[in-house]
Amino acid sequence: MTKKILILLFILIPIKANALIEVDITRGNLNPLPLAVSPLSIDEESRKDFEKILKKENIGSEISTIVENNLRTSGLFNPLDKKAFLQAPDIANLKPRFEDWNLIKAQALITGKVNYVNDKLRVEFRLWDVLAAKEMMALAFTTVPNNWRRVGHIISDKVYERLTGEKGYFDTRIIYVSEEGPKTQRIKKLAIMDQDGANNKFLTLGNELVLTPRFNPASQMVTYLSYFKNMPRVYLLDIETGTQEVVGDFPGMTFAPRFSPDGKKIIMSFAKDGKSDIYTMDLENRIVEKITNHPSIDTSPSYSPDGKYITFNSDRSGYQQIYVMKNDGSDVKRISFGNGLYGTPVWSPRGDLIAFTKLHKGKFYIGVMRTDGSGERLLTENYYQEAPSWSPNGRVLIFYRETKTNSKGEGFSAKLWSIDLTGYNERQIKTPTDASDPSWSSLLSN
Amino acid sequence: MRLNKILKNTLLVLMACLALTACATKKEVSNVQGQMQGDVYTGTDTVEYLADGVPDRVFFATNESILTTASRETLRAQAGWLRKNPSINVVLEGHADERGTREYNLALGERRANAAKDYLMTYGISSDRITVLSYGKERPVDSGSNPLAWSKNRRSVTVKAN
């Protein structure tokens, strides 16, 4: 479905200058870094070629707009208004007049150039430290023209990484459940889109109920729950080929699936006789292992990034709480001890935190705690929200939020939202329909 | 003196407010009271019948899967009807309200339907005739966002399978 991207990446001038600017990622958007994204310059001939192929009048400014939007929505950067720019894009890319950029208070500057070469899109870009009057980074990519959006995302990731010291999360996709129709009879479809909401596609038709899709961190596979033939079962879907298969042969409902960090196993719940236990299935040899064995509900399992531990949700204490155990099911420890109920634990890709949903006094919270349960921090409170999923760099959480209906039962909606780990920069992610159960992919390129 | 007067007035206003809110709450409670006991739905709004005098569903308290006296009565009626109709198989559809996480609710719906299944089995209905299917919070009957609507949605419904 998606063309395998072929990006030739080479560094024009490798630079390890002592940069003055640095963005402190832990401080949220209190002081977003002012930077200028100069439109990528393009020669007239290339511009016309791309206009013909991509139906975009100026692909250079389109790509820089993607970069600008990504950096702005991260909450860490403040892209300045282009109208204030004094230097033309092509000249700025050759040699910026730093005084001009300093004048409009830009601390960093992104410039670049687009060409049409041998049926390919060639993009080079440079990141400049305005105060130090130095080039911080210069990269060039060559790819098929259709990949132009991804080029914008990759540039954003490189800039983010150079300025924050951490990997970005822009060249990623979100898989989610699209929702339509009345609340009592929702039609749900699997849908996928780029992290910024572009390229939305539906992956199922809505004939059967589908829930909780999750990306394989190591490939473009997805696991999800489908009510195909009225039997709720965990399925595996290859989003490249569209092929799908049921996972395992269980005499009852399987649900709450997730991949192991290496992508080789699926961990999930199997419900039988009023009890739900956690199982794994090895995708290569199909061996099924029972991990928990308790008369309670054990569900929502999620591996630590090293695969050695599992966090999960259980009501063995009487109510929903969060637990951590070794990957063989031994050494079970409860870690949530605050007031209220806790659900949907998800281990951060950085390994240090577990994100969760909390219900307390009729309000729902998305929060994080350390893996031993200490340091609980609630990021957002609402009438209903749940199911956080981490950005691959562990800095942002995406989740879904539902609205309260009025006295006639009208006004229901479900939307995707994201929030920084800092608790700042809460924002809605626009989707063509109502949406729930988001799952964030790994970086598509590294 | 003046302060006293102000205080007195405020007190009066306060008391009036209290009286009003007390009335409002009482009214609401009594409205719901006919249809809920604790937080278990006891009304008949959504109930359908498998046969004369055989209601199709039982209701649960929040986060619970315990059968109430009324639920056991309903299930005994269902068991009697199933014994008289040995060719009919049933699906027990377990549901939860919207005030819980999706995955836990799937498990809770399964647990509720199994509570109903176990009871039917103690009254002589073979497990071969019963299929359990949890919908979690996916198929509410009442789209309201209030305790009464939620109580209608916490249910196990017995549906003919053939």
Walk me through this protein's architecture.
The complex is a heterodimer of chains A (446) and B (162). Chain A folds into two domains: 8-164, Rossmann fold (3-Layer(aba) Sandwich); 173-440, 6 Propeller (Neuraminidase), CATH 2.120.10.30. Helices cover 12% and strands 42% of the residues of chain A. Chain A has five helices and 31 strands. In chain A, the strands form seven sheets. In chain A, strands 1, 2, 3, 4, 5, 6 and 7 form a seven-stranded mixed β-sheet that branches. In chain A, β27 and β28 (396-402) form a beta hairpin. Chain A is globular. The relative contact order of chain A is 0.11. Residues 1-19 of chain A have low confidence and may be disordered. Chain B is an alpha+beta fold. Chain B folds into two domains: 1-33; 36-160, 60s Ribosomal Protein L30, Chain: A, CATH 3.30.1330. Chain B contains four helices and eight strands, in the order αβββββαβαβαβ. Chain B has helices at residues 2-33, 69-84, 102-122, 147-153; strands spanning 36-37, 40-41, 49-51, 54-55, 57-59, 90-95, 130-136, 155-160. In chain B, α2 packs across α3 (102-122). The longest helix of chain B has 32 residues, at 2-33. The A-B interface holds A 182-186, 209, 211-212, 225, 230, 232, 252-253, 255-256, 269, 271, 273-276, 297, 299-300, 313, 315, 319-320, 341, 343-344, 357, 359, 362, 383-384, 386-387, 402, 404-405, 407, 409-410, 412, 436-437 and B 63, 65, 98-104, 106-108, 110-111, 114-115, 118, 132-134, 138-146, 149.
